[in-house]
Amino acid sequence: MLKNKNILICVTGSIAAYKSCEVVRLLRKEDVNVQVMMTPSAQKFVGKASFAALTNNEVITDIFPDSPKAGLEHIEMALELDAIVIVPATANILCKAASGVADDIISTNLSVCEQPTLFVPAMNFRMWQNPATMDAVEKLRERGRIVMDPEMGKLASLHEGEGRLPAIDTIMNSIRSLFKHELPLLGKKVLVSAGPTREAIDPVRYISNRSSGKMGYALAEVARDLGAKVTIVSGPVSLPPIPEVEMVMVENAIEMLSALENSLDEQDADYLIMAAAVADFQPANPSGEKLKRSNIVASLELVSAPDILKTINSQTEASIIAFALETQNGTAEAKRKMADKGADFIVLNYANEAGAGFESNTNRVQIFSKSGAEKELKKDRKDRIAKRIFDFILLDKNR
Ligand SMILES: Cc1cc2nc3c(=O)[nH]c(=O)nc-3n(C[C@H](O)[C@H](O)[C@H](O)COP(=O)(O)O)c2cc1C
């Protein structure tokens, strides 16, 4: 499982630093390519030479090396890694990583890395129980980093308490489990609608909205990564197609409805995610010719566009995830909409909030389930929000 993986081992300044030599030795035995980074404090406990010999690699210790090569070595290796293990992890590095401090080679790399990351803490029991450390651990876990619990026992200070570096076997098993990718949606079909619709007034003008499609595309990509077969029915957006996802591009609400119906006819979905911002109304009689400026207002009659979700929810057994974009009374509106549309989940976001809603690369959402569970997902990149929406849905369904 570990063979030929590229793992970065970060050693920080704990008295348990010497034990990371054994972790490196065992990884090398399993043919792992190991790169070691050390903080200045770590080097007070173990010399670079031990790790260089064990890994057959130069040990990285400086954010500003004496003879910089291309100038970006401090982060460029982060791109090629399969996983990162901070062993031992001091209280200091836990707090810095949780706060995004990037003032040495290790914390700087942690601030740019999105690979699976395992922290293996070792410290005095009071340091572990320090509320600042506990907060940092909670924050890191919330963001998907794995932080092992230290073991109980006699500490270097001869005190008894929780703070010992976990046993080497336990650490090795945790490293292995970084590569056990779960595919909870394997064999499932996920149908996503995304983006805006354009309702033609004439051949050159249309009514639309500000949806960028970013949230729906992020959900489709996460569903694919979790093992699902994914189809996305997308209105006009300026996003690239998603590899390994069936893309069905449509223009208006009627086309979107029929594309979703066709997809459900071919194969019912397990999850139907309605992230598109479908127009509520459309011109009653779109003109085949470009309207004259003086005619437009007089000839523009609007009728309701089809309510897609209400129309198709009787045609599918899928779990339905709807979206509500509000500017006020969000919670009440979202819950009303979930019941009205027969959805199992509703994701609420706000149109009038900086860094959230349409167009933005980030979002802040609240998610509610029919079963009464709810969760707020703080402002984050849309791809990470998408992953956490799936975490919530899968947890709720397994309850
Ligand atoms: C003898 C000694 C042992 C230490 N052991 C630990 C430890 O086990 N865990 C810890 O979090 N800090 C420990 N520290 C404190 C850290 O070395 C110190 O907070 C340092 O700033 C950590 O820097 P780093 O996180 O950049 O490596 C120890 C310090 C000394 C002098």
Describe it:
The protein has 15 helices and 19 strands. Strand 9 and strand 10 (206-207) form a beta hairpin. It has helices at 19-29, 42-45, 48-55, 73-76, 91-99, 105-112, 125-129, 131-142, 168-177, 214-225, 253-266, 293-299, 308-312, 330-341, 382-398; strands at residues 6-11, 33-38, 83-89, 117-121, 146-147, 151-154, 160-164, 189-194, 199-200, 206-207, 229-234, 246-249, 271-274, 281-283, 302-304, 319-326, 345-350, 362-369, 374-381. The strands form 5 sheets. It has an 8-stranded mixed sheet with strand order 12-11-8-13-16-17-18-19, with helices on both faces. Helix content is 35%, strand content 24%. The chain has 2 domains: 6-177, Rossmann fold (3-Layer(aba) Sandwich); 189-398, Rossmann fold (3-Layer(aba) Sandwich), CATH 3.40.50.10300. With 399 residues, the chain is an alpha/beta fold. The relative contact order is 0.08. The protein binds flavin mononucleotide (FMN). Flavin mononucleotide is lined by residues 12-16, 39, 41-42, 90-93, 104, 122-123, 127. Flavin mononucleotide (FMN) binds next to helix 5.
